[in-house]
Fold this protein.
Amino acid sequence: MNERLLVLVRHGQSEWNLKNLFTGWKDVDLTEAGVAEARAAGRKLKAQGLGFDVAYTSALKRAQRTLDLILEEMGLTGVPIVRDQALNERDYGDLVGLNKDDARKKWGEEQVLIWRRSYDVPPPGGESLKDTVARALPYFVQEILPRVLRGDRVLISAHGNSLRALIMAIEGMTGDEIVKLELGTGVPMIYRLNADSTVKSKLDLAA
C-alpha cells in the first residue's frame, strides 16, 4: 500500500531554548528535558504503528540527536539518515547568542518582534523566514517530496523555521499565516498525502 507518509518533528528542547537565547546555526545540544521529549516522540510514533524507510535531518546536532533518539525508541536504528544544512534553523545573524529579553532592551520590543515574527524582514546579518523558505523548500521539493509520493515513509527531524517552510508548502499557507504557527519541541506531526501532494490527513501528536 502506498502510504505517502511524511512525519515532521521539531527537535527537543535545546540548551539555548532553556536559556532563552537566539540559537540559529549555533550547534548546541539537547537538555535532559529535550532528550526526554525526543524519546517520548519515538514512543508516540511507535504506538501509532508507524515505520520509516528514510529519515532526513539538518547539519545541527540538536536535530540529529532528536532523530537518533526517536529511531532508537522505535527500534529502527537501521533506517538510512540524510543530513543536509538546507534543513538548518533560520540564521539569526547578529542576534545569535543573545538573550531574547536583552535583545528587546537593545533594539526595542517592536523591532525584535518584527525580526522574529515577520515573514520577510531579516535581523542584521541573518535570514528572514522568507530566506529560510528559499533555502529549505527547493531541497524538500526536489529531494524529499518525490520519495514520499513514490511511497517511501519519510521522517524529518529539523527546526521550527525550516519546518515552517515545509508546512507552508504542504498546507498551502501564506507568509502571514505561517509566521503565526507555533511548533512545540518534540511534537510529531503525521501527514498522509494524496498523489498530487495535497494533504489527505494530518495528525498532531501533542501531549
Notes: The helical segments are 15-18, 32-47, 61-74, 100-107, 109-117, 129-150, 160-171, 175-178.
